[in-house]
Amino acid sequence: MARFLKKRDQQLGRTPGSPVFIGQQKIDRPRIRKIDYSASTLHDAFFPDMEGMTPPQAGEPCCWLNIDGLHDAGLMTTLGSLFNLPSLVLEDVVNTGQRPKFEAFSESVFVTLKMLFFDRDHTMIQSEQFSAILQDNCLLTFQEKPGDIFDPVRTRLQNAGGRLRNSGPDYLLYALLDCIFENYLKAVEVLGERIEAFDEEILEDPSSELLEEINIYRREVSYVRKAVYPAKEIVLRMVRTESELVSAATQPFVRDLADMVEQTMDAVDIYREMLSDHLSSYNMVMNNKLSETMKFLTMFATMFIPLSFLAGVYGMNFESMPELHFKHGYYVILGIMGGIAVAMLAYFKKKHWL
Amino acid sequence: MARFLKKRDQQLGRTPGSPVFIGQQKIDRPRIRKIDYSASTLHDAFFPDMEGMTPPQAGEPCCWLNIDGLHDAGLMTTLGSLFNLPSLVLEDVVNTGQRPKFEAFSESVFVTLKMLFFDRDHTMIQSEQFSAILQDNCLLTFQEKPGDIFDPVRTRLQNAGGRLRNSGPDYLLYALLDCIFENYLKAVEVLGERIEAFDEEILEDPSSELLEEINIYRREVSYVRKAVYPAKEIVLRMVRTESELVSAATQPFVRDLADMVEQTMDAVDIYREMLSDHLSSYNMVMNNKLSETMKFLTMFATMFIPLSFLAGVYGMNFESMPELHFKHGYYVILGIMGGIAVAMLAYFKKKHWL
Amino acid sequence: MARFLKKRDQQLGRTPGSPVFIGQQKIDRPRIRKIDYSASTLHDAFFPDMEGMTPPQAGEPCCWLNIDGLHDAGLMTTLGSLFNLPSLVLEDVVNTGQRPKFEAFSESVFVTLKMLFFDRDHTMIQSEQFSAILQDNCLLTFQEKPGDIFDPVRTRLQNAGGRLRNSGPDYLLYALLDCIFENYLKAVEVLGERIEAFDEEILEDPSSELLEEINIYRREVSYVRKAVYPAKEIVLRMVRTESELVSAATQPFVRDLADMVEQTMDAVDIYREMLSDHLSSYNMVMNNKLSETMKFLTMFATMFIPLSFLAGVYGMNFESMPELHFKHGYYVILGIMGGIAVAMLAYFKKKHWL
Amino acid sequence: MARFLKKRDQQLGRTPGSPVFIGQQKIDRPRIRKIDYSASTLHDAFFPDMEGMTPPQAGEPCCWLNIDGLHDAGLMTTLGSLFNLPSLVLEDVVNTGQRPKFEAFSESVFVTLKMLFFDRDHTMIQSEQFSAILQDNCLLTFQEKPGDIFDPVRTRLQNAGGRLRNSGPDYLLYALLDCIFENYLKAVEVLGERIEAFDEEILEDPSSELLEEINIYRREVSYVRKAVYPAKEIVLRMVRTESELVSAATQPFVRDLADMVEQTMDAVDIYREMLSDHLSSYNMVMNNKLSETMKFLTMFATMFIPLSFLAGVYGMNFESMPELHFKHGYYVILGIMGGIAVAMLAYFKKKHWL
Amino acid sequence: MARFLKKRDQQLGRTPGSPVFIGQQKIDRPRIRKIDYSASTLHDAFFPDMEGMTPPQAGEPCCWLNIDGLHDAGLMTTLGSLFNLPSLVLEDVVNTGQRPKFEAFSESVFVTLKMLFFDRDHTMIQSEQFSAILQDNCLLTFQEKPGDIFDPVRTRLQNAGGRLRNSGPDYLLYALLDCIFENYLKAVEVLGERIEAFDEEILEDPSSELLEEINIYRREVSYVRKAVYPAKEIVLRMVRTESELVSAATQPFVRDLADMVEQTMDAVDIYREMLSDHLSSYNMVMNNKLSETMKFLTMFATMFIPLSFLAGVYGMNFESMPELHFKHGYYVILGIMGGIAVAMLAYFKKKHWL
Ligand SMILES: [Mg+2]
Ligand SMILES: [Mg+2]
Ligand SMILES: [Mg+2]
Ligand SMILES: [Mg+2]
Ligand SMILES: [Mg+2]
Ligand SMILES: [Mg+2]
Ligand SMILES: [Mg+2]
Ligand SMILES: [Mg+2]
Ligand SMILES: [Mg+2]
Ligand SMILES: [Mg+2]
Ligand SMILES: [Mg+2]
Ligand SMILES: [Mg+2]
Ligand SMILES: [Mg+2]
Ligand SMILES: [Mg+2]
Ligand SMILES: [Mg+2]
Ligand SMILES: [Mg+2]
Ligand SMILES: [Mg+2]
Ligand SMILES: [Mg+2]
Ligand SMILES: [Mg+2]
Ligand SMILES: [Mg+2]
Ligand SMILES: [Mg+2]
Ligand SMILES: [Mg+2]
Ligand SMILES: [Mg+2]
Ligand SMILES: [Mg+2]
Ligand SMILES: [Mg+2]
Ligand SMILES: [Mg+2]
Ligand SMILES: [Mg+2]
Ligand SMILES: [Mg+2]
Ligand SMILES: [Mg+2]
Ligand SMILES: [Mg+2]
Ligand SMILES: [Mg+2]
Question: Region (Disordered) spans which residues (chains A, B, C, D, E) (predicted)?
């Protein structure tokens, strides 16, 4: 199954703006969680469907609506008309192969990107698409399946005096993005810890398992890079956006995000380069080892060649070979053989072949 | 036959703006299809030539005129004067080696690019040139031969309440480009599915057929890249164009195209890099395999060298070689040979050569 | 002789603006051809020198003055004062190592670039410098030697109703540049046709002649690239120029040139990349072939090693070697040898070394 | 322990702006040093805590407050409220993994970057984070541990007539940055001196220790590059800043810093390239050496092959082998063997294999 | 001694703007040469020190003051106060490791760069720092040691009617820079002539001396590149400068310099690429040669293996080996051996191994 590109056969030739789910369904039916909060109140509840729900009016508490599961076209259409969402946005929300993206509309700001998790069991970065639509006093977020990294934010929401409870949904969006980017750094850190250890292992034990592991880490670093690079673009657009939905008070925090994404990118680039260095180191070390082995064996063989030749000569059956009849011929020839061996060893030493 | 550059001998020294066909003729005579549509009406018909045809007047239904086959200079000249087309545009339309291009004139917008199809039989991306000229309420499109990927658009045109029937020719142009770019992604997806599978095959069975296949996929990915890169430029120019022929209502859709082209480019770049990694992996695996083989064989040979030497020594014909007359000389020497063999195996083991 | 940089010893320390010829003299004395044309008249004549010539007055027919041969400093000085040319321009005209360049002065526009020809006899791109100075109603052009690619333009000049006869010298300049750029594409096409054929040859017959040929094509593609890259800059400056000497009517044609140069650059880049792929393919194929050969030969040798050892053992002269006296000892040992050979072949097969 | 990325587990999910220390604690309790200076006065003292300290009022002497040790959250919070520091700045100050950064606020300018030292004992660049907050007439600086490179600045502060005593805290900040960047250049110079010497050593004695050393230097140059690249960005932002805290009189000095950083970057890039050249040189030299060795040994072996074959032939036990009974057969065959050896040597010479 | 970075130990921690000499002293005491020129007058003299010298007043002849030798801090300080030079400029003038630089002040324009000379004896580019300070009607220039490339300029200064005598010090500065850049091109040309000849030598005689020479040329081309790249920046800043010290009449000449620097950079890049191609060509040629040798020798050895085995078989001492007693057994076996040899040669031929 292609990991870098999602199958989009259903999409071919469809009317643009159709909310056709692209991806793998990871939950039976969507799960809806609605948190209404203001400086003084906090309501947190799960709902089976959208029945009876309306966007919060001006003056009402801020609303965070999170949907886990993107395959229910009916739900999406309902949401779309209820919150007056552009159809092209809905199409992007349900396309799990969508490229990370920031777009500002007159009444909504739309952000989509990947959440990354390091799956230790498969030495593999797993990803889940996260989309958010920011409106005047509500924030819609979409995930592929239940379970996320936002619990610290939900905890901070319970602190009535905290900045979260006293700010608008733009600050909530920032807080979620901050979680996501912290997790990027975390993922890179986990990869990096192993990568920085390869150096020594290559010198000590360049097994073929190590080579395979290096290649796995290269692939995973590439995978992270694919997610992080467009994320930088997104944050930069968010910094520069003229939409009033992102308030001036939230802007310094968004700039801080840019900082973090840049640091992640720096680290990704350093590890990519390091892995590529590791590969060439591995190659050099392997080549040197093999060369040493072959050289040793060849020299060993070479040393015996003139000796065997001599033995062959005195194994010939000529009638008149005077040496054969010398009293100590045999011992002399053994001595000569020993001398040749010593001389060759000395020559090899002198030539630094040994 | 050069696939990346078309022969243009007829073009050398010609007056600029001459509609000289450059390419391979793929159909006997051009085929003309005219679809007139408005919110309430729809006429779809084939015509043998341009006789009696006129550009639609303001207020008349929108007209989509598609021509399959570009070699008929007479037809092109007639079209040019009928629709008042710039001669340099006509020259580009009939040049199947034309670089993808967007150009806005006062009364026309001109777009040309390649349609891509994956030809499974030859593991090869096939391309066909598509050109479009957008005017006030008509759209002219040109293809090299009959048969295309636009049937879903034609089907949607039959839906009287749909956006296509209620928008101008600029939205129709968008719909056609959307089909073309969906097919780009489709082509990359087909390539990518195979490419992502190479990883494992290289480790398991690095045959020379696999190497050839990797090289074929590199060539095809390069070919797609050649088409997609300028396509991005085109869409970006279309987004930024000041021509009133592209209406504000259509602009968000054009931006969505940019999105899709960027995703295609990302995928193309990832697969390019992956294939290059595959090549070096293949090389490493092959090198390792060969080295292992050679090392094994050399060690095997080396082990016998001192044994054969010993046999040679005792095959010498010296008169006085006391060992030959020892009672168990033969068995002793066989034992010594066995001992040497075992010692060497132990040494190889210790040196990790085995 | 350095092909990529011209000797400029005479230039060291000279007063700037001196028309010192840099290059190889290719003609005995300069050849002057003057074509005066208007919608109604056409005069074409060769002249031995500049005597009596004056720049055309306003209202007089347009004048195209072509000089073949750049080494005559006197002629250049005469031209300079007659047409009031900036001295730095004259210096550039006679420097055949001048980088391609576009410069707009108050009363002149100056363009210099290389004409390219594919020399089939030496598989080599030949180049000749072309310079042009555009003034109000005259065009001066300079070449290194007689013979050029502009005959189609001269033919079109005879067509009294054609655009050339009815436009100013800026359109004539465009027509000449169009010829030059068509020839760039032609040169790249000729190189490309051979380059695209290398692929198969490498797989079938990777001879060392092929390697040399690939390297020759790399050098030539580099050479073309050196000429085409700055040519693009030139055309872009010509598109953007504010000089009134390039009329609005000619601008669309200049933009079309940009198109063609970009296509040439695309092709050059593709062929560069292809050649670099070819080199690594060649290397891989050669390596595989050699490895196969070496592996086969080594295995062949290895198979005989234990057999020869056995023969050696039974060639020893020990007094008591019971096997030697067995009735069928010889046949038994031959059978054992055959068995060992078969076993080793089976082992090699199992290990996929055969 | 990952050297290129700091563990930030405590940071995951925290409220933004919390001064959570990220890094390794290198001192027991923070050390505070306060220098108040004006043209006429100079007070220099150490303090155990912030008790009783207040920011200097306008007109009071300039204050330089340096804190060594970043782990004391209480101290940081006190400082923050006393000097009215943005909470995001405090968070960056105590994050020793923070990317180098310049940010201008309304009443503060914030700079953070790394100080580099070459640790000769471990052939390793060590780094320490330096942060500075510039306010109207005070400068706060933060380091990870006591001991720094600023003593020359402190010495110059004692010169009552010097520019330092007569300028504001912006010039003091410049003087500190100047020290830091001088040390960058120094570190690169130390690396470079060794790197430039590798060239010859590779030709003379390409040991595997040398290879390891080259790889160590590559890693250290990478490490320096990671610090210097963002430093350039910082200085450029400082040059372009519109903050009035950086006075016009200090600007030429800041531009001079940019100069120095660019020179450092140039040097880093040159040494990177040089090291990469060294690696390929090393590889070539090693390959050539091995090839020479193998070729020599193989030729040596080859020369004996036909000789041994001949010996084998005349070791056969056929009843009728006339040569065996020739009177001088033995000497003739020895002569033939000598002749073959000489002929082969001559052939090898002719083929330039020797 | 590090060639790419100058030792700057004295600089560490010094007050910014101190004229501390960095580099190698190449002359005992500085040499001062003063040329005063106007359209009508010319005075040229050497002076031991600055005593009695004053900057020329408005209306007085133009003054060119050249100082050879930068180590005399006293002289520099005198100059600085006399001509009112910024202290940071003085610091740069005496730092021979200063990066090339252009800076415009209110009353001075400062330029510093390297002069390059090809030292044939050591196949090495030598460099000397050149700095110039342009003021209203005087030009100060600084070199490391006596002897330069400006004699042609001094000669042209004697021509009372020439442009030099009739222009200001900005044109004189241009003339000096023109000399410097001509020498850059000259140096590249000298390198290039040898580099372009490597191609053939690699095919004919790929000795290890050639490899070393290629590496030397790579290093020198890198060295030139280090000087030329920032020189381009300088000229571009000079073209764009708004300082009135560079007059409009001189601007076209400065643009012509830009042209020349760009051509030099083009050439440097081409030769860099060419050298890198040469290295891989060299490697391929060497590999092919070695492979051919090894293959030949291995095949030679292989051919004898079955023959020696046969000889071994008939050297066995079994009692009953009927072949040994055949009348023509010996000749038959010799014939069989010959047959095997011929068959193997045929097989090798068929497999294209020969
Ligand atoms: Mg779509
Ligand atoms: Mg979309
Ligand atoms: Mg989830
Ligand atoms: Mg991989
Ligand atoms: Mg991307
Ligand atoms: Mg930053
Ligand atoms: Mg044309
Ligand atoms: Mg065209
Ligand atoms: Mg078609
Ligand atoms: Mg986008
Ligand atoms: Mg190799
Ligand atoms: Mg000049
Ligand atoms: Mg010039
Ligand atoms: Mg010519
Ligand atoms: Mg160029
Ligand atoms: Mg274009
Ligand atoms: Mg392209
Ligand atoms: Mg290929
Ligand atoms: Mg944070
Ligand atoms: Mg921060
Ligand atoms: Mg410290
Ligand atoms: Mg490393
Ligand atoms: Mg960085
Ligand atoms: Mg600078
Ligand atoms: Mg530089
Ligand atoms: Mg090198
Ligand atoms: Mg300094
Ligand atoms: Mg400086
Ligand atoms: Mg000098
Ligand atoms: Mg080097
Ligand atoms: Mg130029």
Answer: 1-20
What's the confidence (pLDDT) of residue A294?
83
Residues D238 and D330 both lie in one domain:
no
Counting residues of chain A whose pLDDT is more than 90, the rounded percentage is 46
Say if residue E100's pLDDT is above 80: yes
Rounded to whole angstroms, the Cα distance separating C348 from C341 reads 11
Residues of A in contact with D327 (CB under 8 A): 320
pTM for this prediction: 0.81
The answer to whether residue A56 is domain-embedded is: yes
Query: What is the per-residue DSSP string for E63-115?
Result: EEEEEE----HHHHHHHHHHTT--HHHHHHHTBTTPPPEEEE-SS-EEEEEEE
Q: Are C99 and E189 within 8 A, CB to CB?
A: no
Helix/strand/coil for C286: helix
Sign of the CA dihedral with E282 first, then E285, E287, and E290 last: negative
- D354 contacts chain E (CB < 8 A): no
pLDDT the model gives residue B140? 96
Which pLDDT belongs to residue D11?
A: 65
Is residue D175, in this structure, part of any structural domain at all?
yes
Q: What is the pLDDT of residues D35-45, one digit of tens each?
A: 999 999 999 99
In angstroms, what is the span from residue C99 Cα to ligand 13's centroid?
A: 9
Task: Spell out which residues of chain D touch residue A305, defining contact as CB-CB under 8 Å.
Answer: 300-301, 304, 308
| Model confidence at A296: pLDDT above 60 | yes
CB–CB contact D271 E4 (8 Å): yes
A38 CA to middle of ligand 20, Å? Answer: 27
Q: Are residues D244 and D333 in the same domain?
A: no
pLDDT in tens, C25-46: 888 889 999 999 999 999 999 9
Query: 3-state secondary structure string, D196-233?
Result: HHHHHHHHHCCCHHHHHHHHHHHHHHHHHHHHHHHHHH
Taking the CA of A225 as reference, the closest ligand is 5
Same domain? C297 vs C280 = no
Whether residues D312 and A312 touch (CB distance < 8 A) is answered with yes
Asked if the structure places residue D335 within a domain, the reply is yes
Whole-number Å distance between alpha carbons of E266 and D17? 51
Place of tokens 């199992």: C350
Which D residues, 260 through 299, put their C-beta within 8 Å of a C-beta on chain E? 262-263, 266-267, 270-271, 273-274, 277, 280-281, 284, 288, 291, 294-295, 298-299
Q: Which long-range contacts (CB under 8 A, 24 or more apart) does B204-209 make?
A: B206/B282, B206/B285, B206/B286, B206/B289, B208/C288
Q: What residues in chain D have per-residue pLDDT under 50?
A: 1
Q: Which domain holds residue B152?
A: 9-285
Q: A-contacting residues of D 206-235, CB under 8 Å?
A: 208, 211-212, 215, 218-219, 222, 226, 230
DSSP assignments along C20-88, one per residue: --BS---SSS-EEEEEEE-SS-EEEEEESS-TT--PPPTTSPEEEEEEE----HHHHHHHHHHTT--HH
Neighbouring C-beta atoms of residue A23, cutoff 10 Å: 17
ipTM of this complex prediction, to 2 decimal places:
0.78
Measure in Å the smallest separation between the Cα of B98 and chain C Cα atoms.
Answer: 8
Nearest residue in chain B measured CA to CA from A317: B317
CATH number at residue D345: 1.20.58.340
The parts of chain C modelled with pLDDT lower than 50 are: 1
Q: Note whether A188 and A333 are same-domain residues.
A: no
Whether A304 contacts chain B with CB within 8 A: yes
- Residue A179 sits at the chain D interface (C-beta within 8 Å): yes
Look at residue C106 in the predicted model and tell me its pLDDT: 86
Of B88, B215, B307, the CB nearest to C309: B307
| pLDDT bucket at B287, cuts 50 / 70 / 90 | confident
Query: D11 CA distance to ligand 20 centroid (A)?
Result: 11
